[in-house]
Amino acid sequence: MIRLSVLDQSVAVTGRSADASIRETLALAQHCEALGYERFWVSEHHSHPTIVGSAPEVLMAAIAATTQRIRIGSAGVMLPHYSALKVAEQFRVLEALAPGRIDLGVGRAPGSDGRTAQLLNPQAHSAADHFPLQVRELQAWVGGNELPEGHPGRGVTAEPGGPTAPTMWMLGSSNYGAQLAAHYGLPYAFAYFITDGQGAEEAIAVYRDMYRPSPQHPEPQPALCVWALAADTEEEAWQHFSGRERWKIDRNRGALGPLQSPAELAQRPYSPAEQMQADQLRRTALVGSGPQVAEKLRALSDALEVEELVVITWAHDPAVRRRSYELLATHFCAVPTRAA
């Protein structure tokens, strides 16, 4: 059985202020809980004109306060920007607010440009080199375990304590993250949507082959984060995909901005070169009617032998996103309902 989860990036769209995108993420979390999704993750980006979610731990607190069952997580905290102890404290507080429901996904990528990364952490040029050590520290502090003898943090605890602890996840889009997740015995989520699938099979195989069981996770637990959009008809789905499609083409030439509506994009016909890019994107996109997308997701799950898929959906109209998650829930979620 495939478990279906959600990753939302709080995407800015034309005609709406960026702060409204944060509130829409909160509303979507409540909607997806009602549909029976496994978990709801939020991302971290900085100084980004399209993806405006900059503080996942704050947004997670709001989601925790307005949901009851769904797991809530970061996808992820860009750990080189921060102190591992402070991140552990933040997530221990979240765990106190929503016991047994918190996922702490961490990544090494900056989630920003080099100048912004430098402003977030003046030692940004070397911070990524210490990522494995940070992961070990975070794993100890989040789990309430003692650090090794001689470590300067030995004897220091991340409060508040409690009977449960956040579940750590390693996020990545290469073999590096897969190897690190395997070494520390952590669940691993591959960012399939970033690489358009390139390297996914190899990274998942590396993760499984190198996996060292941990007390919390005796077996490897891989997941794929994928971009998908379903609608009531295939034609409608491709129409709503046009915003994401144009965004990716514009990004390739260094132009970033809010997601545009299908009506706006109808006034921007593709050049021959852009049309070739669009055709290539459509050949591999997980887009279509509900049954079509469900079939594509099952085929991907079977090919990589992964039991959990985390779905990202961008659309200019929030109702389109909600409908997409509704349609997929009817195929995968244990208790799908048509939310109001």
Automatic annotation (TrEMBL):
Pfam families: Bac_luciferase (PF00296). GO terms for molecular function: oxidoreductase activity, acting on paired donors, with incorporation or reduction of molecular oxygen. Residues 12-303 form the Luciferase-like domain. InterPro entries: Bact_Lucif_Oxidored, CmoO-like, Luciferase-like_dom, Luciferase-like_sf. Transmembrane segments: none annotated. SUPFAM superfamilies: Bacterial luciferase-like. It comes from the Bacteria. GO terms for cellular component: cytosol. To bacterial alkanal monooxygenase alpha and beta chains. This is Luciferase-like monooxygenase. It comes from Polaromonas eurypsychrophila.
